[in-house]
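The authors assume throughout that readers already know how a fold can be written as discrete tokens. What matters is that the chain and its backbone geometry are given together, residue for residue. A single example would do more here than another paragraph of explanation. For illustration, here is how one protein appears when written out as sequence plus structure tokens.
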Amino acid sequence: MTNDLKSNSLKPNVPQEEKEKRTARYSERPIRFHSFRLFPIWLRLLIVFILLFLAICFGVMIGYGVIGDGKPLDALKWGTWQHILDIINGKE
């Protein structure tokens, strides 16, 4: 087969009135505008993780300082957590 015959055999044989119906159908549809993201997904995820970290820090500070008897900033020190882990593991 030559290239000319191949190209003719692959094209669908659509009558002219079908083509007109299709173009009329597409011209009746409203034009849709593509939406774009104001913030990319990676930035949204980063913001969520930062907010989650801050919420955990504030929650620990309120639990240790306000509900408990310690100073709120002591809840963020490694020595406090080491003491808690020692109590849990039975070293103290």
In short: The radius of gyration is 34 Å. Helices lie at 3-10, 16-28, 41-67, 78-89.
